[in-house]
What does this fold into?
Amino acid sequence: MKSTLFILLTCSSACAVPQTATHENGDRPRVRDAGIVIGEMPTGKHNAITDVEGVQVGHATVVRGDDVRTGVTVIKPHGGNLYQEKVPAAIFVMNGYGKLVGSSQVAELGELESPIALTNTLNVGKVMDAMVGHMLDLPGNEKVRSVNVVVGETNDGRLNDIRGRHVTAAHVASALKSAASGAVTEGAVGAGKGTICYGWKGGIGTSSRRTGGYTVGVLVQTNFGGRLTIAGVPVYKKLRPGRGREPAHEDGSCMNVVATDAPLSARNLGRLARRAIAGMTRTGSSFSNGSGDYVIAFSTAKELRIRPSERTTGAPVIANGQMSRLFRAVAEATEEAILNSMFRAETTMGSGHTVRALPIEEVKKLVVK
It folds into this structure.
């Protein structure tokens, strides 16, 4: 990775921290590094969504004073002009208490024509505007009069001054510029800087699986609740935020982004997206009334790219009967990505609140046999 990490605690104005593989959260390990193995399928090289060839991830983390803890994360299916080389895509909504800009066109056409951006609830409009500007400014898009950008969100209003809407076009530009392949920074970074998961500090997490010569990668923005379960162990029975003094955290949302290099039609990408929810379920999600649980899935297979200049599209795609192993892969990767978002996140203070990091050593005592 060529980008450089600058650790930000406070600054006089909102600051953007670029994505990097450097551990910005000290020595906190990923779940697998802590000795807890999720599932049985092999991971890719980085155990990240970027193990899918061409996929890039970038963050801008926004920190200011005692109240601003937020950011933006972008996922690029490939490094080219997505409007001119669209990718097959699908969206699944488990519980729709949220804002996912651009979802209706993806559902209608089965195509993705912009990078995916994640941010906080009240910054969706500003990030959308910045993403539109980015797409219109790309070489080759000079005559474009309509573009469908995709922006998702979760609500970081407990740790962040969400009403201030502190994510700007400059932060979006920084995240886009820093987007890279390779290892992905996780935890309290980018769009996950101010999020909470199962009452503990949540954030950005990622994981991947290899099967049948294909890779499935998942990136999550965790901000939801339920009964935390790790590798089948009901951890919530022994460990609770506030050391048992606080009620279980129920509400919140989770944005799931699924990438694969398998040549899948939009219809089978929709089927794959639905199975990502199995990974959320395995970690104990309650899918409460106040949750917004979305999955965006896309294929990077070059033979399936959709170009405006071509009158026909299509190439051989994976048959229905070959989907089961990919279903298993996405469930495992989603489960591990969620746990990585928590294992890597550090205790965070903001807006008068403190959200503790998951106590890894205590978790290991409960889970590792």
